[in-house]
Amino acid sequence: MSNKHRLGVVVGVDGSAFADAALDVAADQAAARGLPLEIMHGFVLPTLNSSLMAVPYPPEFTMPPPEVAETLARAETRVERRHPGLDVDTHLIHTTPAAWLVERSAHAALVVVGSRGTGGFAGLMLGAVSGQVATHAACPVMVVRGETDRPATAPVLVGVDDREHSVAALEFAFAEADRRGAPLRALYVWHTVPEAGTGSGTQPGSTFIEAVETSERVLAEAMAGFAEKYPQVQVTRALSHDRNPAEILLEESALASLVVVGSRGRGEVVSLLLGSVGYTLIHHADCPVVIVHPVKTE
After folding, report:
1. Bigger pLDDT: 194 or 39?
2. 20 in the Ramachandran plot: left (φ > 0), alpha (ψ -120 to 50) or beta?
């Protein structure tokens, strides 16, 4: 994935500990990629339930309270201490944070959101900002949750199926593992009996051995070319059958540094409308989760 013509890494903050964790990860991502960092904080004008609604807001209602500017200033200072010299831009917005982040994602390399927040920033609460952005963004979205400082030996875990949408997830996962100097673990889930919604992850009408061989081939084909492109990345391929992909990914997230899945697909691992797998991961994973939306190139 090329970063040409991309704005950089974008993150929303609200002054909470969850947002601070997201800010730290976003700053690390920007520094590692050699990209600028954009920090957003939102202030929505209060609603006046009186006759004043018929006239312009008085000045005392149009100016954000001091703590709003302080939140952005603290965030900028925090990044400067962590990564001196990093190119940082701040935005105080007066619209819905989720809508702003989704719009900005059309030109960003990565959007980072916290798993929770104070709710006061029209809320970085998961299911509000984080869930909406993870669903609708035009670029990869990282939801920061769980442990964020695991050692480089902790693998980047990626969910794979045999659809084209796995390509973007694999590209992101390999590139991230390469940047971190971490191993990569690729998981493919197959089913011996057809199930609704399992799509290409199902291997019906086969003996168990044949199904395993087919699944190994599917996984190998999905990953073809990435080993040559990223020769320094140590790769482990993992197969599982007749289990819920979300359940397996959650289990393995306890030892991973990052979980990466695609945003669309017919296999359960990447069938992410923030329903089963994606919804489960961004709510319950033990490490940050990336939902990869393929970047459209012009």
Report:
1. 39
2. alpha
State the DSSP string of 33-70: HT--EEEEEE-PPPP--SGGGGSPPPHHHHSPPHHHHH
Separation between Cα atoms, residue 30 and residue 59, nearest integer Å: 37
What was the pLDDT predicted at 276?
A: 65
Q: Which two tokens stand for residue 282?
A: 């961004």
Angle, alpha carbons 19-21-22 (nearest 5°): 65
Helix count and strand count (H, E) for the chain: 10, 10
The answer to whether 283 and 275 are in contact (CB under 8 A) is no
CB 287 within 8 A of CB 258: yes
- Rounded Cα distance between 29 and 112, Å, is 9
User: What's the pLDDT tens digit per position in 272-294?
Assistant: 444 467 778 988 999 999 999 76
Q: Provide the sign of the torsion angle of the four alpha carbons 67, 72, 77, 82, taken in this order.
A: positive
DSSP one-letter code for 155: P
β-sheet bridge partners, residue 41: 92
d(CA 58, CA 47): 12
Q: State the chain's maximal CA–CA distance in angstroms.
A: 75
Spatial separation of the C-alpha atoms in residues 200 and 169, rounded to whole Å: 17
